[in-house]
Structures are given as C-alpha cells and as structure tokens.
Design goal:
The chain is of the alpha+beta class and 467 residues long. β1 and β2 form a beta hairpin. α1 packs antiparallel against α3.
C-alpha cells in the first residue's frame, strides 16, 4: 500500500472528520464541502489518472475531474461515512484500503449475469462457450461488491444471502456501461434469453424440466453489483427453530430443474458435447457462406422460439390460458425452422414435417406418436392464426398437448444437432432419404445411439432404450 499512501491518508482524515457529524442525510453534503474532501479528490487524480481509469472521471466546466458521485456512491465510501456518523462498528482502516483498491485496481470489465431458476450443486462451474455456469459462495459474492468491509452492516448482506449458491450464467460484455442499472426489460437489443441462447440451450436439452431466466444483472467485479432484492423471485419457507417454534425465512424461489451432485460430471460432459455441436453449426467447416448463414439462422430461430415459450411457462401445467396458443405457435415455428427445407415444393409443408419429425425416432410407436403430436399442433396452429378458437379440447387437454409438443420440440432440436452435417444447409435430404430407403440405420440410428450412449442427457429417450 506504500505506493498510494497519500491517498489512503487523505481518506482516513476525511473519515475521521465524518465521525464527528450528526447522523443526518445532509451529513454527506457537509463532508463534500470540507477541505478534507478536496484532498481526497486531488489524491485520486494523482494515484488514478484518467488515461488509466476513465470510469472514475466526469467532465465539469470543460475539464475532466474525478467524479464525486462515483467516488462516494459507487465505491461505497459515502455509505461508510454515514455508518461512521451513526456510530456503527466500521473498520476505518478496511474502508480506506477498499477505497484505494477501488480507485487504483484494474479497469472494470462489464459482465452480464443471468440468474436461473434451477438448483445446482455447490461448486458448479461449467464452461458453455463464452459463458460460464457457476454457483457462487458467499465469500465469492462479497468480493464482487466495491466495499466488502461494509457488507455485514448493510441490507446488502441479506441480498447476497438470497443468491448465495444460486446458478448464474455469466459472460463478459465489455461494450455495456458499468454504471448502468441492471434491468430485465432491456430495450437496446433482444431479450436476455434470446441474446444468450447458445449457453442456455445445452442446459435445456439436458433435462426436460423447465429452466428459465429469472433476472439479469450487470456486474463489474469490485465496482458494481447493483443487486435489487426485488429482482430475485422469493418465497417463504417455514422450518422449526431452535425453540421448537415455526419460523419463516425468505428464500429464493426455485423451479423443478434440479441437478444432484452425482449428476454434475455427466451434465458437464453433455454441455461440452452440445456446445461443440452448436459451434459447428454456427461456424461450420464450409467456405460457402450461403450454406453457413442459412444453417446458423435455422438453429438460432428454433432456439429463440423455444426459449421464448419457456419464459412464459412456469411449470408443466402453468401457462396462462390466453397465451397457450401463442406458445404452441412458438414450438411449431421452432420445428419448421429445422425440418422444412427452402428446396421443398409448395403444398407439402405439413407432410414433410410429419415424415421428418418421425424419421428422427427409432421405433415405429414413437414415430407414430411424433406424427400425431405434429399433426395436432399444425391443426391447432392453423385454427389460431386464422382467428378461430379450438373448441374440441378442454383446458386440461390443451395443456397436456402443449407439454407433449414442448418435449417433442426438445428432442427434435437435440437430434437435429447430433445428426446435422457441418457441410449441408439443412437435415431434410438425409431424413427424406432415410424414410425412402433402408439405409437409415447407418445415417440416423447409429449416430443417435452413439451420442445417447457416450454423452446422454439426464434421461435417455424411450425409443433409444427400446432398441
């Protein structure tokens, strides 16, 4: 710390003065008007020049000067001063050290953190392309906030309790401003599940239980983790206390997507395999850009519609009645994106969908089941887009059919990824050839058996286990 001793001493002098002020909202304004604060600003400029730390500066009167709002609010120094004026047990030395580290540490790198509604084992850390799926310990989370010394003295301690051990998908996002408040409704681009589909899709293909994005945060470790507890869905858990009385505790609300510790290695292997296949489809080994772009668009469109439907599905039977038909439309679009070829003749969309979906399954019973699901989905889709109402189904039957369509769509996407060659624009010709000739065993059955044997999802499909 000797290199920045003058900055540390300036902060200590300023904090010492804070201890003698009354605990009022105006105290921080008074502190900013004192010569001690001018010393702090001057030493920040000397220890952290703008060319190395531009995020600390703002333009005032035509000149770039250290931004007092950043130094006080973002760093947590202002909160420290308030707690000191209130007589709180604040370690002034730790606060000064944290502030020096805040000003002189590495430049912040903005990240996006997607909070998922599943449950994963402690210590989960799985690469998913550029993303990482990780569960953070309490200590790891504390290191992300600017002033760890104050964590236990603020309500933030409770905030971090809500997400300790929660699963996050995080990825660097250097173009995102680090001072921007995190928000789910981000109008600068696609919704979060659409932006990060390549990392979410392998997890969704691993288990048929629903996995959704609950919240999205902008994080710059050591600079910004503007966690609002209202952004974390919670529920009340009742348990028996030490005195035998029931106690209520607010905990993070999780869904049915649960990964036991013993399944974590298999999940990691599956995600590695699927991420590699997604990368191959999106990049390919061909130099023909037309093929590459068309194939990539197909997969991305299917994934985005699948995720859009997931985000509006709360559990197997948890779909708003007014949205059920729209979710069905999302699934049908996903199927069409992967199974319909631009070279198909007109008037055969439904027939091609039925035969190609069925060709992805290995037994006659499952092929007929797939045809039935697709046929009913197409009929319901046509009724919906023409403004009519499905009248021959009860609400319970409609939800059951919607669940079956969701499970079929998952299997079609997974098998499409396993089978799609990197040098073709779509899988349709291979599936059509398999239907019309006896060669499907080498082209379809064996590759699917090999994949589901070496890197299976949580539950092997019934048609695989039956053959």
């Amino acid at each position: 710390m000797s290199k920045h001793l003058s900055l540390r001493e300036a902060v200590l002098s300023w904090l010492e003065y804070a201890g003698g002020l009354p605990p009022t909202p105006q105290s921080i304004v008074v502190l900013m008007l004192q010569p001690h604060w001018e010393d702090v600003v001057r030493e920040v400029a000397a220890a952290a020049p703008r060319e190395e730390h531009p995020d600390l500066y703002a333009k005032t009167g035509g000149d770039w000067v250290p931004n007092s709002r950043t130094l006080l609010e973002v760093s947590g120094l202002g909160m420290a001063a308030r707690l000191i004026s209130e007589g709180g047990p604040v370690s002034v030395s730790e606060v000064a050290d944290s502030f020096v580290a805040f000003c002189t540490g590495p430049a912040p790198v903005s990240e996006r953190w997607l909070l998922l509604n599943g449950t994963f084992p402690q210590g989960t850390r799985i690469p998913l392309g550029r993303h990482t799926l990780q569960t953070f310990t309490a200590d790891e989370l504390k290191q992300t906030i600017p002033m760890p010394a104050l964590n236990v003295l603020q309500r933030r301690s409770h905030d971090l309790d809500l997400i300790t051990g929660a699963p996050f998908l995080h990825v660097t996002d250097p173009d995102r401003p680090v001072t921007r408040r995190p928000t789910w409704f981000d109008f600068t681009g696609p919704r979060a599940e659409a932006q990060h589909w390549q990392a979410l899709l392998p997890l969704m293909l691993w288990d048929s239980e629903l996995l959704r994005v609950d919240s999205v945060f902008t994080v710059a470790r050591g600079r910004l983790f503007d966690l609002n507890p209202r952004s974390v869905p919670t529920t009340i858990k009742v348990h028996e206390g030490q005195d035998g009385k029931e106690e209520e505790v607010e905990v993070r609300d999780t869904g049915a997507f649960h990964v036991p510790a013993e399944h974590l290695p298999a999940l990691a292997d599956f995600c590695t395999a699927i991420s590699a296949k997604i990368d191959a489809v999106m990049a390919g080994t061909t130099h023909e850009r037309r093929i590459l772009n068309r194939r990539a668009r197909r997969l991305e469109r299917a994934a985005r519609h699948l995720l859009a439907a997931y985000q509006r599905t709360y559990h197997d039977n948890g779909v708003w009645e007014v949205e059920a038909d729209e979710l069905r439309l999302d699934y049908v679009i996903a199927l069409e994106a992967l199974l319909i070829s631009p070279n198909d003749p007109g008037g055969r969309i439904t027939a091609n969908m039925l035969s190609r979906a069925a060709a992805l399954f290995l037994t006659r019973d499952h092929q007929e089941e797939a045809k039935g699901i697709v046929r009913r989905a197409y009929k319901a889709r046509s009724i919906y887009v023409h403004g009519d109402v499905i009248q021959d189904q009860t609400e319970e039957e409609k939800l059951k059919e919607l669940r079956n369509l969701r499970l079929l769509t998952l299997q079609v996407i997974l098998r499409w990824l396993v089978l799609t060659p990197s040098d073709t624009e779509d899988l349709a010709p291979l599936l059509d050839a398999a239907v019309q000739s006896p060669g499907r065993e080498n082209r379809i059955d064996q590759p699917l058996h090999a994949f589901f044997t070496t890197t299976p999802p949580r539950n092997r499909p019934a048609d695989i286990t039956a053959t």
